[in-house]
């Protein structure tokens, strides 16, 4: 069964600190992996998208890594800001599935002053 | 703002009533997806369209649910005889799929419609 698992489920950090969120997946055949940020009550917004051949991608203070052999990904946030408080969702798509996305349950990040 | 709009943003209804949601995708996008998200969970796929053709429906989409995209532009999702278990955020996403890419292009999400069934 195609699944995406994320850890931790929730995380509280102080403003200015770094953090790393984890994602494990069993989706096959793998097409790409995305990280989305979802503010409360809003739709998800894409942060990064990586294909099989990419093992790191950055978007400002966000850096995603992908190990396609172990089927693991991480999202590293540096110098956190209060506005980073949101749910971060790891999303994987399989080849030839019409672009259908398989979502993890998300990591709820809270950045405190 | 991603360019995908959904209406209404919030809907409160009584059990047994019918509701209809609308999604307006980014204008040149040929694919449109519907997802459902319950509290504390990631979104789950419901159905998707390639232009006006509905190509796949999840088994989550019971016979009380119907989706249309009549002219290959906006889409509607109707829920008949709503149940309390239908309470969720309904998300729409659109993408521009280029033939041969296997459906891997970026999906842009709307803000969602929050449904509460009393």
Secondary-structure-derived class of chain A: mainly beta
Helix content of chain A: under 10%
Number of helical segments with 4 or more residues of chain B: 0
| Main pleated sheet of chain A | 6 strands, mixed
Please provide the ordered H/E string of secondary-structure elements of chain A: EEEEEEEEEEE
Describe the structure in brief.
Chain A is an all-beta fold. Chain A contains no helices and 11 strands.
Detailed description of the structure:
With 113 residues, chain A is mainly beta. Chain A has strands at residues 4-7, 10-14, 19-25, 30-38, 45-51, 56-59, 62-67, 72-77, 86-94, 101-103, 107-112. In chain A, the strands form 2 sheets. In chain A, strands 2, 4, 5, 9, 10 and 11 form a 6-stranded mixed β-sheet that branches. Chain A is globular and about 45 Å long. The termini of chain A are far apart. The mean pLDDT of chain A is 93. By secondary structure, chain B is mainly beta. Chain B contains no helices and 11 strands. In chain B, the strands form 2 sheets. In chain B, strands 2, 4, 5, 6, 9, 10 and 11 form a 7-stranded mixed β-sheet that branches. In chain B, strands 1-3-8-7 form a 4-stranded antiparallel β-sheet, with no helix packed on it. In chain B, a hairpin with a 6-residue loop joins strand 4 (31-37) and strand 5 (44-50). Chain B is globular and about 45 Å long. The A-B interface holds A 4, 31-32, 34, 36, 41-46, 49, 51, 89, 91, 93, 95-106 and B 2, 4, 31, 33, 35, 40-45, 48, 50, 55-56, 89, 91, 93, 95, 97, 102-112, 114.
């Amino acid at each position: 069964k195609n699944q995406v698992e994320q850890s931790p489920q929730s995380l509280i950090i102080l403003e200015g600190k770094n953090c790393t969120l984890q994602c494990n997946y069993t989706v096959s055949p793998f097409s790409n992996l995305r990280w989305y940020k979802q503010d409360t009550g809003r739709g998800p917004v894409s942060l990064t998208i990586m294909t099989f051949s990419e093992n790191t991608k950055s978007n400002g203070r966000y850096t995603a890594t992908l190990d396609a052999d172990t089927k693991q990904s991480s999202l590293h946030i540096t110098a956190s800001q209060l506005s980073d408080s949101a749910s971060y969702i790891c999303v994987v798509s399989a080849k030839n599935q019409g672009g259908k996305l398989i979502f993890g349950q998300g990591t709820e990040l809270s950045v405190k002053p | 703002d991603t360019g995908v709009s959904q209406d209404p943003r919030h809907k409160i209804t009584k059990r047994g009533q019918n509701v209809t949601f609308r999604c307006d995708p980014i204008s040149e996008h040929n694919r449109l997806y519907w997802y459902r998200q319950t509290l504390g969970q990631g979104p789950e796929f419901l159905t998707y369209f390639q232009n006006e053709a509905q190509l796949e429906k999840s088994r989550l989409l019971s016979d009380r649910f119907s989706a249309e995209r009549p002219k290959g532009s906006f889409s509607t999702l109707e829920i008949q005889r709503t149940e309390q278990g239908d309470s969720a955020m309904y998300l729409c996403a659109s993408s521009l799929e280029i033939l041969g890419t296997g459906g891997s292009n970026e999906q842009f999400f709307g803000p969602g419609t929050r449904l509460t069934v009393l």
